[in-house]
Amino acid sequence: MFTILSSVLSYIIMDDFDLDLIDELCSSFFTPCTSQNTKNENDTKNTNESLLTSNRKRTSTGNSLENSKIKKICLLDTSNRSIIDEYDEMNTLDESALQMLCEEWEPRSQFPTLLTRVAGLLDKYRNIQSFHNWQKKCLDLPARRKNQNLIYTLPTSGGKTLVAEIMMLNCLLHRHLDAIFILPFVAVVQEKVRSLQSFADELGFHLEEYAASKGRYPPIKRRMKRSLYICTIEKANSLINSLIENHRMNELGILVVDELHMIGEGHRGATLECLLTKIRSFTPQPQIVGMSATLANIDDLLTFLNAQFYEERFRPVELEEYVTVNDIVYKINRNNSNDNNQLIEHRQLDFKYTKQHLLNDPDRLVGLVSEVIPNDSCLVFCPSKINCENVARLIVSFMPEKLLDDNREKRSILLESLVEVNEGNLCDTLKTTIPYGVAYHHSGLTGDERQLIEEAFLDGILTCLTCTSTLSTGVNLPAKRVILRSPYVGSHFLTFAQYKQMSGRAGRTGQSQTGECYVIAHERDMKQLREMLFTVAENTTGCDSHLSINNNYAIKQLLLNVISLKICSTYESLLNLLQKTLLALQADRLNVNLENLLDECLQYLVDTKIVHAKEDERASNNSSNGKLKRFIYETTKLGKATVEGSVELGLANSLYNHLRTSLVNMNLENPLHLLYVTMPFDLPNITIGFRQLVDRIQEMKNEEKVVLKLLEIDEMFLQKKAVGLPAQQNVSKQTMLRFYIAMMLYDLFKNKSFYDVAKFWDQSRGTIQNLYSQVASFAASILYFSKSYDEFWPYHELLPMFIQRLTFCTSLEILPIMEIPGIKRGRALQLVRAGFRTLRSLARAQPDHLMKTVLNLSLRTAQILIKHSKRLLCEQAEDLRDQAAALVEDI
């Protein structure tokens, strides 16, 4: 043990770390989150004792609640509902409002300092000087005060997330426990990490990203600060597994789920239900908070989570809804039950179209857009990615040239920034539309491009975005007017939940009194559109359990998880766990028999050698109990590896065989073979471009072509396919596809830009980036999967650095610098060539020297680079100290 400790400590004092520098950075960069005043040793000792006492409190005390001066919101009935429907006034964000954040803060002398700092940060970084009335009421609910489970709903843009963030701050700073925040998409996780980083720096807690290939299992056990984990659904499930396995669930105080309605959406919804079921099986259970703009089956969800419910119809900006057919605008009237009056003729569009204009824009979309821009903002939701780009070009083709003068300088800077992130390239559509303040936004863009476009839209540099439906559940980009180009998402008709998400983007708080949503439709769509908009019965379903879909896949995964984590081991305990699921509550309606499902799924796990069943000597031999009921269940080595790596059940055996076979002839002269090995099995169905593939292979060196021989891919076969000749394929289609994508990504390893790679392989830039992210994520799964097998030790050594290269998509030379948030490959190369090869060298630099040394580097950018380098260096040092402390804990 002490040998291991010495090894860890040696990393702290190795050449890459200057202890004087670390001490200086830690003292200057971080300030204590509890007080800004100097304290003597006795005060510090008392503070630590008080915090330790507070840490043991999982719920608020009754006396403190009774003495509270803040009025409680009483529950209106036994179903735990609290529905408030009144005019919502703004309240000053003063000490009385924030007192709900940590009313029992100990020691009390620190409380005013904390309030001042939180209020100051909300004002500084969010421009929030006041709470809405509903937010105060929600924070004052008994469920919030007693740390009980809570579900609340509010229309989009109503301020739901702020309430959740306040509750998480309460948990981190007052209860001194960790928090998990679950968000639906990787991009939203990344945006939330950027949004909260300043709060973490100034309030003194750790912010950790769990998305794509990022995330550590188990997380570092912190000595002083608490951690806020920002996760996707899948990463949160893996994180919970690691906390359970390491007996650290007592460190977790709250779990917040954004977009809770996703529990009723396919495979990801089933994963979310499994995660929540595992948490509900623990005592004491961390607080669960769920929020959404659209929730159905609310009674089932309340029972499933044993939660209280708060519903608010408040919207900071009034929403006006319209449907347009040809040039007639109909207003949606939701206050009249008469079917004939639900769509009321409102006005006629008066945009002056020529005959040619009408041929180009028969739906009169440009007329609706031109009523808003350039003085206000507009989002146009389109059914497909290609339609987004076409609509953006259509809009600017109608725009007068005088619009080119609006924000000319800022739009030029935006174009330059887009060229920079694409390393000298820019797509023709954005080059044409951005000067007019118009751009498109969809998954075909890289993450850097999307971020620049989003920021430009929020700042008013861009006034119109054409986008796909994913934007409605992604980063919050409110607009004066939202237009649905068609009542379709892809080839499917719009659902009510999708409509609510998209229309929820209409209205910018503080900038307009109303928000507008227009749906462009044809006469043939009107019957179906009316049903979607007004048929209440069809809009009250959607949060149904998906545990039993896909041949009960999610149930098998849940059973494997709880057996591996030793939560359950007998038939009775497994059945008891299933009875706590959302599926159990809906079993009659979904026509599901839990015992039959359990029997079937257990038999599958045993037959596939994922789970081992051994005779339970305590069980009765009475045959009526059934064979499966007389066993104790344990995971095999394969089952354990499947859980550790978060690998799909159906792929576990194939992955093991694949890794074992690949080890025999592993080629490490270049990254190509390792790219192939870490390629996911469930790849998108991409058409193989044999001509591009042959061109690339002809450029390869002999040592690179070794991979072709290892995979038994015949060059002659590829050449025949490239010219359209018939050829007999001697490898599987999956092997060919995995090699094809590996060749694509290999170009990025050679420091080619996303733009150049996408252009050569005839794919979108976003597709290339998404593939790269999938490989990085799967490589991380392989790393944890392989740790269960001693024979896979080479993967333990190879993959950590390889995953870092995949995460930052760069060469080893600039990898350390790429950890700095927001830095691009071009800038990192500049810094390395100027001699700044490590975070330590950047942290020690002076801004003026850095500015003079690196070409086209402003003083402000130099200061930001140095600041981030200091923060990252301090975090690395603190991580090592925490790991060292964990090694000697309880010795």
From TrEMBL:
Keyword terms of this UniProt record: ATP-binding, DNA damage, DNA repair, Helicase, Hydrolase, Nucleotide-binding, Nucleus
Source superkingdom: Eukaryota
Molecular functions per Gene Ontology: 3'-5' DNA helicase activity; ATP binding; hydrolase activity; nucleic acid binding
Catalytic activity: ATP + H2O = ADP + phosphate + H(+)
Subcellular location(s) of the protein: Nucleus
Biased composition (Polar residues): 50-64
Region (Disordered): 37-64
Ranges of residues in domain Helicase ATP-binding: 141-313
Limits of the Helicase C-terminal domain: 361-563
A cellular component annotation (GO) from this entry: nucleus
Residue spans crossing the bilayer: none
Main location: nucleus
GO-annotated biological processes: DNA repair
A Pfam family assignment: Helicase_C
PANTHER family: DNA POLYMERASE THETA, PUTATIVE (AFU_ORTHOLOGUE AFUA_1G05260)-RELATED, HELICASE POLQ-LIKE
Name of the protein this chain belongs to: Helicase POLQ-like
Organism name: Rotaria sordida
